Amino acid sequence: MTAQQLADRLADVLAPVLGPVAVEDLRALTGGASRVTWAFDAVIGSEARRSLILRTGPLEELYASMELEAHAQRVAGKSGAPVPNVLIADNSPAALGNPYLICDLIEGETVVRRIERQLDDAGRARLLSQCAQALGAIHRADPGTGTLSADDQLSACRAQLDALPDTTAPFEWALRKLAANRPAPAPIQLVHGDFRMGNLMVSGAGDLAAVLDWELVHLGDGVEDLAWFCLRAWRFGAPPERAAGGLGDVDSLLTAYAQATGIQVDPGRFDWWLLLGTLRWGIICRYQAQRHLSGQTRSVELATIGRRVSETEWDLLRLLDGVRP
């Protein structure tokens, strides 16, 4: 549909929530690997203007539905996590051509290079502490009795890799080590699933404004989020001593998390999840490459992500050798 047709349909979708509105300044922000994001203004009456975000995307098994994303954000927000206020979400494609979620716009920056330029050492330490506090709030949220996935993440990685046309030796070695050294079961928590720089909105003052992009939310072990935040891919070129999101060292993150939650994370458990997270990222890279190569979704972005499989193989080899990359 055209942008004007989408704007007209958005006005109809919002009417039950906001009353009669006009949609203005509709613009696409990103065409990401899984969701497309739009910004627009809802004009209510003659003067009131509300800046909103629309996220759309097809239903896929790999991702939580739009309604589950909305549910997760709401329960995390009640627990104290900084999240956008969700107005409406619907898994049906009837209204807008795809499932959708509409929330308030949060002002700030997500581009890591720009965030890095506005932070000094003290600012990075403060933001790292705020990230730990946000994760603590997410992990203590009550997920309710919905249909969030509680799949075993190691088994999910095995299944996802088996569904692809090929595998690699480092992937298989990592799977064997993970299976042989699985930690004891942990209490079930809400897990964001993709908590990292790039998915965090940072204010102009350098503070954490919102946790975004909840399409990988599920139930599991909260240490998964802590380790994912520390993957080499998510420090965007920062040195190893700033392995925690490019903001600080891993020990500082775990200390801040313990202060926020009272939970001391076992280093061995963290390292197990760091290995699994690195493997999972490698499988995601290979999966996105396959979407492009198969012709399912021809995309330069997906092809570029696919080229990063070799990076994760190198990181897995180092982790298997006992070295955090």
Automatic annotation (TrEMBL):
Transmembrane parts of this sequence: none
Signal peptide residue numbers: none
Superkingdom per UniProt: Bacteria
UniProt xrefs under SUPFAM superfamilies: Protein kinase-like (PK-like) (SSF56112)
Pfam families: APH (PF01636)
Gene3D superfamilies, per database record: 3.90.1200.10, Phosphorylase Kinase, domain 1 (3.30.200.20)
Listed InterPro entries: ACAD10_11_N, AGP_Transferase, Aminoglycoside_PTrfase, Kinase-like_dom_sf
PANTHER family to which the protein is assigned, alphabetical: AMINOGLYCOSIDE PHOSPHOTRANSFERASE-RELATED-RELATED, BLR2944 PROTEIN
Protein name in the entry: Acyl-CoA dehydrogenase
